[in-house]
Write a structure and sequence with these properties.
It is built from four helices and 14 strands. It is mainly beta. The strands form four sheets. It has a seven-stranded antiparallel beta sheet with strand order 3-2-6-9-10-5-4, covered by helices on one side. Strands 1-13-14 form a three-stranded antiparallel beta sheet, with no helix packed on it. β7 and β8 form a beta hairpin.
Length: 201
């Protein structure tokens, strides 16, 4: 089968792109608005883009009627220049899903999902206290993308919080907390097994 995204007579019910580019890590992004009100939302178009200096990115699609610039996360980052990426563990999957709703601006999704906030060390944004890892980020650049309200947020990682019990022998072990990844459609996966491959010399 050959599939063209711009073909009006699509042979598939849904675009296969998200199912092909998977699994994708979930960036559970916390921000605050100009008044200090917290926001928390998951983004599956998220990844690390550089390790030296450490940088991450996520993309946001579309607009909200109660925001001038895109989604709440984007508007807040434009205003403050700061955000936190929280890792979603298997234990937090339902809370993550609860924060994905289309809530009005100003709604605190930490409260919606019954999550505890923890203070950060560098940025003035709360993190998810029970997240196995959180990345404190300062805005590097906002890139406008094709499409109404579509943007890429690139941030510099300025601080990292790790679950102590998942750190052994100087390494962070994903199977200890089982990160959740996004697949296509409404599907998710939990990482519970890893293996090592040694790069050829």
């Amino acid at each position: 089968m050959f599939y063209r995204p711009d073909d009006p007579n699509k042979p598939l019910k849904h675009s296969p792109l998200k199912a092909i580019v998977s699994p994708r890590p979930i960036g559970w992004i916390s921000t605050v608005d100009k008044d200090g009100k917290a926001n928390l939302a998951p983004y599956s178009f998220f990844n690390a883009v550089m390790d030296n200096p450490p940088m991450v990115m996520f993309t946001s699609a579309g607009r909200k009627s109660d925001r001038e610039f895109g989604k709440d996360s984007v508007s807040n980052i434009r205003d403050t220049g700061e955000f936190v990426v929280n890792v979603v563990s298997h234990a937090l999957k339902d809370a993550m899903n609860a924060t994905s709703g289309a809530y009005e601006a100003g709604v605190d999704e930490f409260e919606v999902a019954g999550l505890t906030k923890a203070a950060c060390q560098i940025v003035n944004v709360p993190r998810v206290a029970d997240s196995p890892a959180s990345l404190e980020c300062k805005l590097h650049q906002i890139v406008d993308l094709p499409g109404d309200g579509n943007v890429m947020i690139i941030g510099n990682v300025v601080g990292i919080h790790l679950l102590d019990s998942a750190v052994r022998d100087g390494m962070f072990h994903a199977t200890d907390y089982q990160p959740v990844a996004r697949l296509g459609y409404k599907d998710y996966a939990t990482i519970s097994e890893v293996y090592e491959l040694i790069r050829p010399k």
